[in-house]
Model the fold of this input.
Amino acid sequence: MAPRSSGPEAGRMSDVLAALVRASEKAANIARACRQEALLFQLLIEEKKEEDKNKKFVTDFKTLADVLVQEVIKHDVGHQFPVLKGHIFGEESNEFTNGLGQKICVKICETEKETAKLLSLVLDGNEEAASALARAAHQSAGELELDTGHAEIPPSTLGVWVDPIDSTLQYIKGIGDSVAHGGVHSQGLQCVTVLIGAYLLHSGMPVMGVVNQPFAAQDPNTKRWTGQYFWGLSFEDVKLNSLQTTPDPLVDSTHLSAVLSSGEAPSVREQLGSACGGDIHYAAGAGYKCLCVIRGLVDVYVFSEDTTFKWDCCGPHAILCSLGGGMVDLKESLRQRREGTSDQCPELLYNAPVAGAHGVDRWANTGGLVAFRSRAHLERVLCVLSSLPC
Ligand code: 2IP
Ligand code: CA
Done:
């Protein structure tokens, strides 16, 4: 595929966004391919190294699928927009150690054959599995045109955060028959998402995002899964998304519904539980919980802990902004209100690491978050949680 942009500064926003959506579709294809072949899937699990460990899980998993998906996204987006190459960041390191103790950097090569050869080193010589993965990595995701008008943005001003497979635990568990309550799945493959978000390097504000749900529905007969994706763009006055809904000016903020992590602090669960009068859900996956807000299944996603990261939020955040909502730092918002320094809530930003932090914690959302579509709901949450220590 020839690069589409004519120069480093060329770039209709729709072309960049289409590249992100296409990459997410390819990622979703790989995620499905790995999951649907049990033997292949078993081969892919490797434990995370100490530094990279999400401290929340006793055992977290890094899968080759995860790494491969991230490399495919980097490769495809970087190929189309070469200036973005050094600005695509993700959760995973691409270094693997095989059974012989050899360190191998997983990457997408020029040809499918070369990629298969490299992958077979990671897979201790399992050429069949390596070829299957390489095939998925080199398959075209098809053409895609997005009509987002003529807004332009130089790709060189953008950074990109990628979470190749959010909710890895659900991906590994592979539960296919979870039942949704109020449209929300508490667990299962439906909670798995591919998250890609672009932000402005200078300000850290998110501008474009894709949330791809590879396992949205399963055919009861064939057991094959189909996915769906949602995108959004929010740059200056341009606000567009694939949901085709307009923000409702008459939001009923007296009623509140929320989705929380099952690991949420008891006090937050209690306070929000009573404010929501029972309309509260618990679900796996930071990306999936954001998707529940984006789709209007719940009003807010609140998280008071520090175990979400920039790659979990950037893509969904851009979509929420395109809907007139946003994603703010919970504790910083509460603190500024308490001190009377500002009643503007600080949005999460994506361009600066946490000072003094190491490993993945450099990119943690340390003050927790509130994801919302309407400011009225955000206000309500801050009011309900006003006594939370911050
Ligand atoms: C995880 C994943 C978890 C989430 C955690 C994220 O990302 O989304 O599900 O915890 O915050 O960092 P919870 O489900 O309790 O909200 P990953 O699966 O990519 O490690
Ligand atoms: Ca994640």
In short: Residues 226 and 297 are 20 Å apart (CA to CA). The longest strand covers residues 206-218. Confidence is low (pLDDT under 50) at residues 1-8, 53-61.
